[in-house]
From TrEMBL:
Residues 9-120 form the Phosphotransferase system enzyme I N-terminal domain. This is Phosphoenolpyruvate-protein phosphotransferase. It is found in: Cytoplasm. Its EC number is 2.7.3.9. NCBIfam families: PTS_I_fam. The keyword Secreted does not apply. Belongs to the PEP-utilizing enzyme family. It catalyses: L-histidyl-[protein] + phosphoenolpyruvate = N(pros)-phospho-L-histidyl-[protein] + pyruvate. Residues 246-531 form the PEP-utilising enzyme C-terminal domain. GO terms for molecular function: phosphoenolpyruvate-protein phosphotransferase activity.
Length: 533
């Protein structure tokens, strides 16, 4: 018997079942280079596999929005051009070309600091495996063929691996890699399957058929438990299921504290599908719509019309509140179709609102799209990384310019649309009272605010223990922001990780926070905390 403590809980829950080791095929590509006369045939071979993959993904996309994103990746011009050029110009066979291009694309996302963005690289690798399976003639393993209750143990899982699994049979998932924001984690949450990720060496510690217990609430795995431990986990599982049913029963209860304050509970999302997944939690709205995904998952700057259709759909799905953060790229977030100059310290460089204000026509296309969507729900515009009153005023002036253009064109929009800002820099904290006189709302981004206030790179493992949003300086800054906002009568929310940490709820309520916005999986837990405070 061995106990393993785990840091990353992707989906809460308790499970006890035998292990099923899910081992992938060997994806190592053929390293052979092509002769000149073989190039055309290899191009045709890849084209045939690509056609089959697109057809398969098209069928899956009709049933699951995740695969609609995979279909876009598989048909992406930059990806296809990268593969075909390696075959044509570098004489690499299709397997090797696919492997190299997929790794290059995935590495761009893996290098990002934002956990949500980092995990998008897994989607690119999933598509790459579909290509490789066709080129190598390999049939991918099928979790849909399971016939008994198991805990799946794997190096990593991708949406294609999990789409057929049955929650009646798969009682838990443990992976050596992966992150809490991956699509697999999202799928596991939607199926209420306890999931722990990033468990290094777990494949070496379990054997097929070995009994495994897992507590994905506290991050504990016990391999080959004795009878008393197994009985303990079976009882814990019953208690957890009762708690989950209790939390679900509270979804229609307003988030009101015992002293009568109504708190807004909202979701952080990256696309329309994320909103659909959050709606069953009975959310009060979307506190953060990360618009950068429209740009990052594209081959060009999305047009006004392309953005409008997405924002409109989002506003109609969640009419009570849709807070769209304007383009937040730079730092660790690149675009495949735009060259950023290499910077010594990109997190202090050309990013977010700085890019938008320098590229005004691009920015106006986004603002026009958001304004048009505001006719279909309560849409709010939120500007990221503001550090000066001049920046805020310039952004607001562009909104007014877009309003006049739309009015002249006879296009409708919410004339009283709210314009707010992220509070995520030391400058915004120190100038909070000044900003509160001109912003319609604040949203505290604790991820960046913490790293800037404490001078701690949250992606640096050597100093990870120093990244702490409970640090007195961070808590003091949050309090200062809330007091400044309330002094001017504006609503103050939070959309950083701290908002979804139930340990932080008492502190944030005491400070007077009005809105908590978080990943959908945390909403039930935060609601219960608020009701009991």
């Amino acid at each position: 018997m061995e106990r393993i403590d785990v840091e990353k809980t992707a989906s809460r829950g308790i499970a006890a079942a035998v292990a099923y080791k899910y081992l992938e095929p060997d994806w190592t590509p053929d390293m052979t280079l092509l002769a000149e006369e073989e190039v055309e045939a290899e191009q045709q071979r890849f084209a045939a596999v690509k056609g089959a993959v697109l057809q398969e993904l098209g069928e899956l996309a009709a049933e699951n929005e995740i695969f609609a994103a995979h279909l876009e990746i598989a048909d992406d011009f930059m990806l296809q051009e990268g593969i075909t050029s390696k075959i044509r110009d570098e004489k690499k066979n299709a397997q090797l070309a696919v492997h190299e291009v997929v790794e290059e694309f995935a590495a761009v996302f893996a290098a990002m600091d934002d956990a949500y963005m980092k995990e998008r690289g897994a989607d690119i690798k999933d598509v790459g495996k579909r290509f490789l399976a066709g080129l190598k003639g390999i049939k991918r393993p099928d979790l849909g063929s399971l016939s008994s209750e198991v805990i799946v143990v794997a190096k990593d899982l991708y949406p294609s691996d999990t789409v057929k699994l049955s929650p009646e049979l798969v009682k838990g998932i443990i992976t050596e890699e992966g992150g809490v924001t991956s699509h697999v984690s999202i799928i596991a949450k939607s199926m209420n399957i306890p999931t722990l990720v990033g468990v290094k060496g777990i494949l070496d510690k379990v054997e097929d058929g070995m009994m495994v217990c897992m507590d994905a609430e506290k991050g504990i795995i016990v391999t080959d438990p004795d009878a008393s431990v197994l009985s303990e986990y079976q009882e814990k599982k019953k208690a957890y299921e009762e708690q989950r049913r209790h939390l679900e029963s509270l979804r229609n209860v307003p988030a009101v504290t015992k002293d009568g304050k109504r708190i807004s509970l909202c979701a952080n999302v990256g696309n329309v599908e994320d909103i659909r997944k959050a709606l069953p939690m009975n959310i009060d709205g979307v506190g953060l719509f990360r618009s950068e995904f429209l740009y990052m998952e594209n081959t060009h700057f999305p047009t006004e019309e392309e953005q409008f259709e997405v924002y409109k759909e989002a506003a109609m799905l969640c009419p009570q509140e849709l807070t769209i953060r304007t383009l937040d790229i730079g730092g660790d977030k690149d675009l495949s179709y735009f060259d950023f100059e290499k910077e010594e310290n990109p997190f202090l460089g050309w990013r977010a609102i700085r890019i938008s204000l320098d590229m005004k026509e691009m920015f106006k296309e986004q603002l026009r799209a958001i304004l048009r969507a505001s006719a279909f729900g309560h849409v709010r515009i939120m500007f990221p990384m503001i550090i000066s009153l001049e920046e805020l005023r310039e952004a607001k002036a562009l909104v007014e310019e877009c309003k006049k253009e739309l009015s002249a064109e006879g296009k409708v929009y919410d004339e009283k649309i709210e314009l707010g800002m992220m509070m995520e820099t030391p400058a915004s904290v120190l100038l909070a009272e000044t900003f509160a006189k001109e912003a319609d709302f604040f949203s505290i981004g604790t991820n960046d605010l913490t790293q800037y206030l404490l001078a701690v790179d949250r992606g640096n493992k050597k100093i990870a223990d120093r990244y702490d949003y409970f640090h007195p300086a961070v808590v003091s800054a949050i309090g200062q922001i809330i007091r400044a906002g309330h002094k001017e009568g504006i609503k103050v929310g939070m959309c950083g990780e701290m908002a979804g940490d139930k340990r932080a709820v008492p502190i944030l309520l005491e400070l007077g926070l009005d809105e908590f916005s978080m990943s959908a999986g945390s909403i039930d837990y935060v609601r219960e905390q608020i009701i009991n405070m």
